[in-house]
Amino acid sequence: MDLDGPLRAFASYSWTSTDDVTSVTDLVAELRMRAFATFRDRDSLRPGAGIEASVHRQLAASDVVVPYLTPYALASDPVVEMEFRTAAGLQRDHGRPRLMPILRNLGDDHATVTAATYERLRYDFRARWTGQIAPAGDSPLPRELTARYAADALRAALPEGAGPDSGRWRLMLATRGDRPAPWPLTVDATELLGGDSQRPGDTETWQRLFAALCDLKTTLTRHGHRRDIEICAACHLTAAIAAGYVFRGPTGWRIGAITADGGVIRRSPSLIEQGLEFIPDFGAYTAAGGVLAVDIDLVPRHIERAVVRALREPPRARLSVRRCDTGAHMDPRQFGTIAGAIAARIKHMRSELRATRIDLFLTAPAPLALLLGAEFGAVGCPVRLHEHHDDEYVRSLDLPG
To answer: Nearest-CA neighbor of 6 among 193, 170, 252, 155?
Structure first.
């Protein structure tokens, strides 16, 4: 399979209904977090572009088309004539794009939907058995449904197969700043977490992104036999750790290279282990269980006060990790060794304390954070991540144990 170009989706809907627009906005966010470069007219059409020609070009280039079909969409000539019928014709004649409609308030089963829409759409949902029938209602779709429909679209775009021609998947992970230029796979959460202002994100949004990464890994695992991936980390540290955790070695994957700041970091055996200082603090409380707070400052940003403010109650113990020589340059070739050494010390201390959770506070280069996340499957308990923002730490994501 050739994945030199980006994976593409096209979202079709009516502007008439506010609820339809809200549902599709959530759907597009979920598609983009599952590695689709997604076309939506409101934010994808360039000024002065011929609308019909642009739409036809985008439909022809798409891997999946997801029409949100409601009575409002059925009444829209652009949705029906220019988008749905064109996509259906392309699927019939060329097999692509895959048409993945979401049907709402048009009937309770495929036969009823076909009877209600055939005169308008000329499409037999019974024969093709396509389309998700969403629960009837006048409010926007619940986000768990838009996430499920986006995962269905991903599986349709990447059915079981042989994997990329090059033998390595290439993934851009973007959560900060503007939307990036797409890679073959681009997990794009910039609308939710990036934009013009720096934002730490909230726990619900981070959980949505984590679920999307898990869906992506599951689909890629089924699609081909190769489990080699290159990741470009243009993201918050929470996102980097999450991606490393999802694609960690024990799940059968290998992070073969990491791209950041225009350079490629290859994972290779370390030449010289960079000096680290581990500072444990057990306090006076000695019973088993509780929270092990771990603060890792490798930039450094002098995060001690921010960590203390973020600890709402005394932890069972703390482990502080610092570099011995903060003036020395961090060699990217050492990142794998550094991540492994830190994870081994955390695992040892957690086992000694029998801690029930690790609270992590981190400042480090994003590639190192990604490699650290790949080590966290072995620590033996849940890990609660915190994102640094305006000299404070904000709870972000809980990784399962």
So the answer is: 170
263-266 vs 254-260, strand pairing mode? antiparallel
The segment(s) of the chain belonging to CATH 3.40.50.10140 are 8-157
> 276-399 has which CATH code?
3.40.50
pLDDT (average), residues 124-143: 89
DSSP three-state, residue 278: strand
At 266 the pLDDT is 58
Q: Which residue do the tokens 């994997």 mark?
A: 163
Q: How far is CA 17 from CA 70, 134, 334, in A?
A: 9, 16, 54
| pLDDT tens per residue, range 296-306 | 999 888 999 99
> Which burial class, exposed, middle or buried, applies to 207 when counting CB atoms under 10 A from its CB (0-12, 13-18, 19+)?
middle
pLDDT band at 225 (very low <50, low <70, confident <90, very high): confident
CATH 3.40.50.10140 fits 8-157, yes or no: yes
Beta-carbon contacts of 133 under 8 Å, excluding residues fewer than 6 positions away, are 103, 104, 107, 108, 109, 110, 113
Question: Of residues 259 and 261, which shows the higher confidence score?
Answer: 259
Determine the Cα–Cα distance for residues 84 and 12; give it in Å rounded to an integer: 8
With contact defined as beta carbons under 8 Å apart, do 50 and 57 qualify?
A: no
